[in-house]
Amino acid sequence: MFSRDAWKEIFETIQKNKLRTFLSGFTVAIGIFIFVVLYGFGNGLTNTFAKFFGDDATNVFFIFPGRTSVPYSGYKANRQIEFDNEDLADIEKNFAMFVDYITPRISRSGLVKYKNESNNYGNMGVAPSHQYSEKTIMMKGRYINNQDVKDKTKYAVIGRLVERDLFKDEDGLGKYIDIGGSSFKVIGVFQDDGGDNEERKIYIPYTTRQLIEKNTDKIDQMVLGFKPQIGYSGAMSLESSLEKYLKSKKFINPNDENGIFIRNIADQLKQNQQLASVLQIIVSFVAFGTIIAGIIGISNIMVFVVKERTKELGIRKALGATPKSVISTILLESIFITTISGFIGMLLGTVLLNSMGDTLEDYFITDPYIDTGIAVFATILLIICGALAGYVPARKAAKIKPIVALRDE
Amino acid sequence: MIEIKDLHKSYKMGNNSLHVLKGINFNVKEGELVAIMGSSGSGKSTLLNILGMLDVLDEGSYTLDGVPIVDLNETKAAKYRNKFLGFIFQSFNLINYKSAAENVALPLYYQGVGRKERQEKALKYLEQVGLKQWAGHLPSELSGGQKQRVAIARALAAEPKVLMADEPTGALDSKTSYEVMDLIQKINDAGNTILIVTHEPDIADMCKRIVHLKDGVIVEDKIVDQVRASQYV
Ligand SMILES: Nc1ncnc2c1ncn2[C@@H]1O[C@H](COP(=O)(O)OP(=O)(O)O)[C@@H](O)[C@H]1O
Ligand SMILES: [Mg+2]
User: Which family does it belong to (chain B) (predicted)?
Assistant: First the structure.
């Protein structure tokens, strides 16, 4: 069955029946190709979701003030809620069990100047622990510390790109820059994995910002890092008790959806991961659907091939071909073609995936890839199923009596 | 060479059964050239197919070269066909994507003959039928007579005990028919046993013996003076 002669006979048949070879080869190659690409896209989708949250801490709540939408305990509706320094301290005190750190954020933006260079940058009044929530990495110098907050120092920590824009090749550390009319000393330069925008920011002590703005004690938002040990359910219950606490502190109706907003990154991450894995499952489902379609396609082609060859097989049988040799001729031919074209399709699919990188990032597909194991498995599955599907008509053909096959129409 | 005793064959079609061969007794000795004659539908092809192990008999016995042909399963029939028999069909039945030489070599492939020897033998038999220069051509590039000669070379290549031809000239004009018969006569001269099914009297007269089938029985079985085909070509 596997003699050199048998293979030669098969190669000759394949060579001389190009259309047939092309049809079955193409079906298999396309099937595997689409499978590999779709499956790779599924992985790319997951990559994108992972990347969204990759650069920031995930054990974090963002707490924003809003406007009330219903009147409550003597206050009218549409009241603007504001946070101040006391709120920070109160939360830290009341939730000490769960809270790792809490930092305010006062975001402003404006012209920043150094000598003749100037540009618009966002600046943010923060506490030292803000470094953790943003995973800010210091390249040189240092971050804002507690002493800076206490002394309301005019110190600034600038992004890598801010330094490059303003100082060119100079070292910015220790130099003075002008932020919105006040002079700040650069005490540190940072980098951030979150992209260029993240590196075009300036951090200053929040107390300094408050001093500049008529010594107010208001803060824009709060970022709260909770202890990772409390887990997902701990985070969920912390979120609701925090909301209850703040609503009662600010006299907001407990059912008012708009007074205070808490963005729970852990919850969002989990939801997004769930969404990603649901999408991954759907995409894999479609991908395996293609494989099934490929199997059905190759089966149909095998039926067609056997039908087309009925007369030839009848001649071969009259000349002494045994049923076994008829079956093996058909099967080996189909296995040979599906194997070669299957691996071609797999290779092309893999090459396409690898060459794509992040060109499809706009469609939420980043660095699509497929595990070689899965690709090979799908290919082998198609080959085996193709062979099984070919076996049925092949056996039928082997059973046809030569006189029936040779009968003139 | 061939011994047939009391052979019966019917075709079942739904509830009806068509009794085609109704007790045939028939012997062929080595070196004979036998014509099986009869009108259309008289069962000539049926008889030849049974002799060729392309079909099975219902009743009776069949011995080929001393081997009783019984309990034929597909594999065994294929092996016997390959070893004992060469077929020539009315419609040639060449494989259309194989060259003349490859067609001739095919039975040798199923005999397990090595590639090189196959090619040599194929050329030898093509030469014998006068088509050596056409060895590399596809059947579609050959005329009807040439195709039948390739088919004859293929039947000869396996060096069978008996050659069986079902209306070998049925698709050919009379001049080409005589050329083919001339070839068949020469092969018979060399000692090969040949059975030819035909309904054309002139073709039958070119054989050495004529067996007449009618209504499923042999009505006549006579030795004739062979008309040589060479005088017409
Ligand atoms: N496979 C078959 N099934 C049913 N009937 C058949 C089959 N083959 C032949 N016959 C019938 O058997 C009879 C003899 O056929 P055949 O041997 O081919 O005749 P011939 O070759 O003498 O013309 C015909 O009536 C034909 O219709
Ligand atoms: Mg007939």
Answer: Belongs to the ABC transporter superfamily. Macrolide exporter (TC 3.A.1.122) family.
Euclidean distance between CA atoms A15 and A17, whole angstroms: 6
- pLDDT at site A283: 82
Write out the H or E segment, with its range, that includes residue A383.
helix A372-399
Tell me the per-residue pLDDT of A18-71, one tens digit each, with 9 for 90 and over.
Answer: 888 888 889 889 989 999 998 888 888 888 777 766 566 778 889 999 999 888
- Is the distance from CB of B1 to CB of B162 less than 8 angstroms? yes
Place of tokens 């907001």: A252
Q: Which sequence spans correspond to the domains of chain A?
A: 4-52+271-406, 82-249
Q: What is the pLDDT at residue A55?
A: 60
Q: Which of B110, B228, B97 is nearest to B160 (CA)?
A: B110
ipTM of the complex model: 0.91
Centre a 10 Å sphere on the Cβ of residue A220 and count the other Cβ atoms it contains: 17
The distance of B101 to chain A (nearest Cα, Å) reads 14
Starting from the CA of residue B41, give the closest ligand. Answer: 1
Distance from CA of B231 to the nearest CA of A (A): 32
Looking at every residue in chain B, the average pLDDT score rounds to 92
B97 in contact with chain A, both atoms CB, cutoff 8 A: yes
> Residues in chain A, how many?
409
Backbone phi and psi for residue A173, each to the nearest 5 degrees, phi listed first: -60, 130
pTM score, whole prediction: 0.70
B209 closest CA partner among B47, B36, B34, B44: B34
Average pLDDT over residues A160-179: 89
Chain A contact present for B11, CB below 8 A = no
pLDDT tops 90 at residue A231 = no
Least confident of A263-272, A317-326, A339-348, B35-44: A263-272
Go through A360-393 and write b for each residue having 16 or more CB atoms within 10 A of its CB, e for each that does not.
beeebbbbbbbeeebbeebbebbbebbbebbeeb
Q: How far apart are the first and last CA of chain A?
A: 33
Domains of chain B: 2-98+143-232 (3.40.50.300)
CB atoms < 10 A from the CB of B165, how many?
A: 27
